[in-house]
Amino acid sequence: MATQESVAHEARLRAQNIGGIDETTVELESGITVLAGRNATNRTSLLQAFMAALGGSSASLKADAEEGYAELELDDQTYTRTLKRTGNTVVTDGEPYLDDPELADLYAFLLESNPARRAVTTEDDLREIILRPVDTDEIEREISRLTDEKNEISNELDRLDSLKNDLPSLEQQRTDLEGKIEDKRDELEAVKAAIEEAEANADTQQEGQDELEEKLSELRERRSALEDVRFDLETERESLSALREERDDLEAEQEDLPALNSLDREEVDAEIDRLQRQSQSIDGVISQLQSIVQFNEEMLEGSHPEIRQLLANDDTESTDQAITDQLVDDGAETVRCWTCGSQVQRSEIEATIDRLREHQETKLSERDDLESQIESLRSERREIDQTRQRHERVDRRLDSVTDEIEQREARLDDLTDRREELESEIDDLETEAAELEAEADDDTEDDEESLLELNRRANELEFSLGRLERDLETTTDDIEDIESALEDEDQLEQRRDEIRDELEELRTRIDRIEREAVESFNEHMDAVLEVLEYRNIDRIWIERVGKTVREGRRKVEQTAFDLHIVRSTADGSTYEDTIDHLSESEREVTGLIFGLAGYLVHEVYEEVPFMLLDSLEALDSNRIAALVEYFESHTDFLVVALLPEDAAALDDEYDRVTEI
């Protein structure tokens, strides 16, 4: 993994009433800035001020203040975060550096309670930490949307291929129709000429001729109407057949759909609400534990503002001084308890604080488990909602198709009745026309075609010609539609290729992040173990393994991150150890490198130019110096809180802040 090139920057931070800070201003240049000092000297509070101005979510307001702020000047821009107490809550406002602090909170602000560091210490799900900023649900939704679009395009391209294959036969059909139309027109012209000749030679009275013409005209109208009805009947039957096939498909799809139980959704909602309330309750406990730990640490070190105020109100200055000395003397074995007033061992209070921290870690782990359960239930709820939507879509379409079938069946009955009515009328008109013609044409030779027969032939030819012309119009429209559709073929193929690339990127995004995170961790872990010279550890590395997990009601294949520790014995043989056997120093280094892997994989350096470190006391001074210098190459500003003796191991060229 390549290091990030640093660009010279200058920054100024102003803070008021953040953590334990009354008011301070700190100036720093890019590179390493060391906050050197004993415990309870507001080093962590200054880191909180940085986080507040950068947009982080962990800043706290000073216990005795109603409002505070953090202001960061960077590259001629000013970023501000204000905190204001409202009842039992603290409301934040302003325009910090980051709009969304999630990436920075996870991978740039590597304080003691950082989730990435804690994940290794508490053996949490490492993969979940790496993928937490990735909206996997949104990726799945986008994959589903693009897949549907690709399928639609593929279906359309398949249709175009089929139409392209149909084009030669349609063009041949158009040519054949044009030839048939020409023949029919010639034949019709000949019949019309025969009709004119027959009418001219007729010796019947004009009155009889007019009556016959009227009947023939009426007969032509009825035959034309009958032809239209027959055409409509054919069209309705075709449509009805297609609708019935669609209804059968919908009914089959309806039967294949999973059963829908509304109680399942309600039960899942209720369980999510219950778990969320439980998680919120644990959040409250965690917040209270954090406050208690911080308060007792400050009281133990004598830095809490309340104790100063309390001692200032005692009767005598000498008594104040004595009690103060007892409370703030780092070397004292006993201190006066600020709750009961008795003398207690400092180690007992420190042990109690350690137990509180352990309890806080337990609660954090419980909350993570609850969040995992909640996410699983949300996945199940989405599955239920999708099933319900499919049911509703199929039901709606089935109702619509059923209604349309009923309407077309009624229309078909009406058309059938109309056809029978017209056929009966035509039979009557033909009989009447034949009688009139017989009366008016007694002298016609037997071998000559009657005027009625000629008109019948003319009508039939006109009907046939009309059908051919309609077929030609339909065929021409089909050809034009195909040619028009084929104009979009290249564009559709290009879009399908684009979707394939997008789907490939989406489907491999999670895999790529996992792979890069593992590679980054393993690479940097190897390098840091060599730099820090942990002689009894050959390697600490992460392996991606597959496992089956449950998402809602489904079991799916998913990867997991397995952390391996390889040690060697004095005789040179190697064996695999467990996380439980790592020293505190080794665990802290492993957690920090895991945080660095997330920082690099998610390119957090593109989002925020700061990385913050504290609580490195588990490492010896030389290793702290080596680790800090290793981290420096990956960020513009590295701000690290150290004890004075640990800070002394770093090069003097690095900026130092000793008073806050």
TrEMBL record:
Gene3D superfamilies from the UniProt entry:
P-loop containing nucleotide triphosphate hydrolases
Which GO MF terms does the UniProt record name? ATP hydrolysis activity
Residues forming coiled coils: 136-263
Can you name the source organism?
Natrialba aegyptia DSM 13077
Pfam families (UniProt xref): AAA_23 (PF13476)
Q: Give any single GO term for biological process.
A: double-strand break repair
The UniProt record lists the keyword Methyltransferase: no
Q: What's in the keyword line of the UniProt record?
A: Coiled coil
Domain Rad50/SbcC-type AAA per the UniProt entry, residue ranges? 12-225
**Record's protein name:** Kinetochore-Ndc80 complex subunit Spc25
Q: Where is the composition biased (Basic and acidic residues)?
A: 377-395
